[in-house]
Structure formats: structure tokens, C-alpha cells
Write a structure and sequence with these properties.
This protein is mainly alpha-helical and 269 residues long. Helices cover 70% and strands 2% of the residues. It has one domain. The protein has helices at 9-18, 21-41, 45-70, 75-102, 111-136, 150-162, 174-187, 204-223, 228-242, 249-263; strands spanning 144-146, 192-194. It has a two-stranded antiparallel sheet. Helix 5 (111-136) packs parallel to helix 7 (174-187). The longest helix is centred in the N-terminal third of the chain and has 28 residues, at 75-102.
Length: 269
């Protein structure tokens, strides 16, 4: 029997079985990011943030669970999820940052646009470097992310840029000129951020925070839309400030050892 391009039967079967139901949800997450970028082109950063949020709630928050329920988790799904997250939670938020800051009126043209590009670039550059670093010298410790997770980075930046209170706080939009690059730097650190995908001691309140995210954002989206991103910003701040405390002393010691091993791996010559 002839197989196109010399494809063997097992390879052909593997190719057909790569994209499954779980990946439909990943595609929803990716779609949210693409729609957000399109809305930014139209100068609608608030609606763009809503698109990212909906993609997360109906896509990214479900694809892993669906894969586990169906027993269809595979390497393809992991790689596809990574690409979708990079688009929806990094590139799309960076586009929102650019859209807000190019019209913030902090500087005269063209410096306002240069500032907007620099702020958005700081996010994309930092997460891209982190991704490459984690492939070359991974920190292998189950259940903990090394550095600020890109999803937290994205929603924190979106929350700030679309928050009703942002232009009214002391310093106004200038606060973000420091805050957003600070988030980018935080992604390159090795600060531990516990994953919600495994159970650990004292983790009930972290799960409560995740539940609060979905409940509070849903209520805000339906009834208090003007303050939707203020709520998101607040939840991201609380999560980032206290989630690490769910790690036990033993876990922190083991994680520090994993970081040391990862950082000791020599790069390519």
C-alpha cells in the first residue's frame, strides 16, 4: 500500500490522533487571543481584555481537565497549549498595553508610541527568553512554576491597563511604566509559584482564590462591567502575594535544589 510522502502506518495514525476534543478548548483560548489582537487594531483594549478572559474561562481553564477526563493528554496537546498561551496570555496582553499607552498622553509623539512599544516588548521579550531558558535548563520540580507564570503576567497587565482606577491613582499611567517592566522581570526570576494542578497541604485557600477569580469575574462581567478589570487586578495581586505560602518548608528546600540543578546546566557551546 502506498502512503503519502512515505508515511508509515503508525506515523499516519499518530498524525490523525494528535488533534482531539481537548485541543478544541485550547483553540478557544487561542481564538480569544487572536480576537483580542484584532480588537486592539481597532483601538478597543477593554473589549480585547474581555476576549482574552472569555478564551481563558471557556478554553484554557478546561482543556487540561478534558484531557485528564478523557485520558487523551499527550505531547502534542502540551505543545499546542504552550503556543496558545503564549499568544493569548502574552502577545495579546502586550497588544493591549501598547494600545492603551500609545494614547495615554504621557509623552509627545513619537515618544508616546516608542514608550508603548517598549512596554509591550518588555513582556514578549521576557516570556520568550524564559521559555527558551526553561527548555535548555529546565527547573524540574512538579507542581511549581519557576518565575511569574505568563498567565498571571498577562492578566495582571490587562487588569491594570483596563482598570477604571488606573488613571485616577497617584501617578496615573506613569505607575505602569514601572509596574509592567517589573512584571516582565518577575517572569525571569526563579520565585516559586505553586501550580493548582496538584494537591498540597494548606492548598484549600489557593483553590478558593481560583474559584473567586471565576465567580468574581463572572459577576463583574455580567453586572459591574466597568470594574471588571479592577477585580481581576486585585485577584492577581492577592494570588501573586500569597500563593507561595502554600508550599511547605520541605517543598521550598527541594524546589531550591531543583533551581540549583537547573541553573548549573551548561548552555550550548
Amino acid at each position: 500500500m502506498f502512503f503519502p510522502s512515505g508515511m508509515a502506518p503508525e506515523r499516519s495514525e499518530r498524525a490523525r490522533s494528535m488533534f482531539g476534543i481537548k485541543d478544541v478548548f485550547t483553540s478557544i483560548n487561542l481564538l480569544g487571543g487572536v480576537v483580542a489582537i484584532a480588537l486592539c487594531v481597532e483601538g478597543r483594549p477593554f473589549e480585547a481584555g474581555v476576549a482574552v478572559l472569555l478564551g481563558f474561562m471557556f478554553g484554557d481553564a478546561l482543556d487540561g481537565r478534558v484531557a485528564r477526563w478523557l485520558g487523551t493528554a499527550n505531547e502534542f496537546g502540551g505543545e499546542f497549549d504552550t503556543i496558545a498561551d503564549h499568544t493569548a496570555h502574552v502577545i495579546a496582553p502586550a497588544a493591549i498595553v501598547y494600545t492603551v499607552y500609545k494614547d495615554a498622553g504621557l509623552l509627545e509623539h513619537p515618544w508616546d508610541e516608542i514608550l508603548a512599544i517598549a512596554l509591550s516588548m518588555s513582556m514578549v521579550l521576557a516570556v520568550s527568553i524564559r521559555h527558551a531558558r526553561n527548555i535548555v535548563a529546565p527547573v524540574e520540580y512538579q507542581g511549581v512554576w519557576a518565575g511569574l507564570p505568563r498567565t498571571v503576567l498577562g492578566f495582571w497587565a490587562i487588569g491594570y491597563c483596563n482598570a477604571a482606577a488606573a488613571p485616577a491613582v497617584p501617578g496615573g499611567w506613569w505607575v505602569g511604566v514601572v509596574f509592567i517592566p517589573g512584571l516582565a522581570v518577575a517572569t525571569l526570576t526563579y520565585l516559586p509559584f505553586p501550580s493548582h494542578r496538584i494537591t498540597r497541604r494548606h492548598f484549600w485557600w489557593v483553590k478558593a482564590l481560583l474559584s473567586l477569580f471565576f465567580v468574581a469575574t463572572s459577576i463583574s462581567l455580567l453586572f459591574y462591567r466597568a470594574y471588571l478589570f479592577d477585580v481581576i487586578f486585585l485577584i492577581m495581586t492577592i494570588y501573586s502575594a500569597i500563593s507561595w505560602t502554600s508550599l511547605t518548608g520541605e517543598e521550598r528546600t527541594a524546589y531550591a535544589a531543583a533551581v540549583a540543578r537547573g541553573r548549573s546546566i551548561p548552555g550550548p557551546s
